[in-house]
Amino acid sequence: MKNVTDSFVSLGHWPSAGSFGLNTDILATNPINLSIVFVVLIFFGKRVLSDLLDNRKQRILNTIRNSEELRGGAIEQLEKARSGLRKVEMEADQYRVNEYSDIERKKLKLINSTYKTLEQLENFKNETIHFEQQRTINQVRQRVFQRALQGALGTLNSCLNNEVHLRTISANIGMFGAMKEITD
So where does this one cross the membrane (predicted)? Predict the structure, then answer.
């Protein structure tokens, strides 16, 4: 301690010869120099440091505020996107249900249409078969009738002579005459 006070006392005893000298006693001058530097730094640097810290604090607060605003906007957009997704999912589910029911309706309609078509084809087939049977039966009847007629004509031509022919005609005329009397 004595060294510190001695250094202050020795300031007053410097010769005023206009020369400047250095005190080379490190133990005596260092604490004084350091205390002067600290006082100057604290006195002048306090405002600068305070301004720097205030500016840094404002930038950090602005960054936090901007981040909060961006976060809020992102949350809003996320909620909108989720809401849109839910809406799209509901529409997709509704569309799926509608399409499934539409597909089922179309399937049933197609099955019913196919059944009706098959029924019509079956009816057409049966009508065609019936028509062909009737046509075949009519052809067979015509052939049988033609053969029977040819056979009867052949038999009549071979068995009949003029006399039998005249008697048959007379008998038939007599029968027609009797029938006429009965009906009158």
Answer: 32-49
